[in-house]
Specification:
Helix content: 40-55%
Number of helices: 17
Radius of gyration: 26 Å
Structural class: alpha/beta
Strand order of the largest sheet: 4-3-9-10
Number of strands: 15
Distance between the termini: 46 Å
Strand content: 5-15%
Largest sheet: 4 strands, parallel
Length: 495
Amino acid sequence: MALYQKQGLKFYNSMSGEKEIFTPINEGNVGMYVCGPTVYSNVHLGNCRTFISFDLVFRYLKHLGYKVRYVRNITDAGHLENEADSTGEDRIAKKARLEQIEPMEVVQKYTVDFHNILQKFNNLPPSIEPTATGHIVEQIEIIKTILENGYAYEANGSVYFDVIKFNKDHQYGKLSGRAIEDMIANTRELAAQSDKRSPQDFALWKKAEPQHIMRWPSPWSDGFPGWHLECTVMSTKYLGEEFDIHGGGMDLKFPHHECEIAQGEAASGKSPVNYWLHANMLTLNGKKMAKSTGNFILPEQIFSGNNDVLKKAFSPNVVRFFILQAHYRSILDFSSDALMGSEKGFNRLMDAYNSLDEIPTSDKSDFDLSAWKQSCYDAMNDDFNSPIVIAKLFDVVKIINNIKEGSVSITSEDRKELKDTMKAFMFDILGLSEMNSEAETDGDKLSGTIELLIQLRAEARANKNFALSDQIRDQLLEMGIQLKDGKEGTTFSLN
């Protein structure tokens, strides 16, 4: 890869609020940490958008020739849903109680689901995928260090980070842009039973109540680590006290990432991360997708069509393409019409790519391949701008069609380079799956056939031929295709 491509890479650093030229700590090597899932339920599409966004980053850095160590954690230790409530129940234990299974069965079940879904989206696995429960010893040790450095205190078997004291020597709130004075002014008084000295303080270690299932011995109590601690421990263990990139969803900027910075600086005296990257949210019905509100859709519901949101089923390839058509830092709204448009665009792109070997060649090229190729790299080098890259790919789809019509010519050498470049951007960088192209086409044919039968059934009903209408519905159901009649027409799902 040309040195220019590496030198031209810049991306938006949430810490500075500006795009910055990327300069790794160790030349040719990149350390990247991304906050992974809490495995107490199926991963929803909003979560997947974040992981697809950082898969794009991972893929492009590798494409540029960097040796990347990508660390993404699994949160498998139960944490309280509400830290201020000492009687709170952690999510993993709550799920275990509801399903009447062991907490680690919950963890295993949803970790497997998480991996399966990301594999369907063609995400590359991270270099290391550590778990919170596998690093309890390291979390206890860093708490000891923070206590020794004077930035934490023990109270009734729990250990809390002293935000006010830390802020005297450092700056708490610099990532999110929050002033400690404003935080104090906007918080309620502590309840009498709280062990915290200040509402801003957060738990490094919580003493377990008798009913709390997931617990470990420590110098302070039988308990469990605070949520923020695991990421500080696992990122610095595998990437060092200072590393290049930390990523995650926009909603983690405060308090999670802010607390990570504070913990790292309190333990080592060093600011742990050079570049903070945050992916924006996916919305459904105009609101953020979230498990807590019930406003979400699962990937499997999209792939099967078994949902009340979409008109039909869509493949993982199409959904990934839809997500990458928006910049990772912009809000993306999920809808049936948007996915329909993405499916049409994806098929146009795949058809053009698959036809490249058949287009006629000439002894000269009218198409400036070098300039087009550079424009694709310029887009990726400008904060991983995947929608611009996709627009550039559609520009070349027009060129391919013009070559077929004879209005533009291309040499055989340029045709080969064009195919190699399209392959690199479509499959290596954007991560679309070339292997599934035939399956995508078969899926489109199936969808088209079902839509035709839905249309024929609608005509039968309009003509009061209810016997034929019912026959179409019932025979499709026997084949595992369920029709659903609603206000906006008939949709289907594959059962």
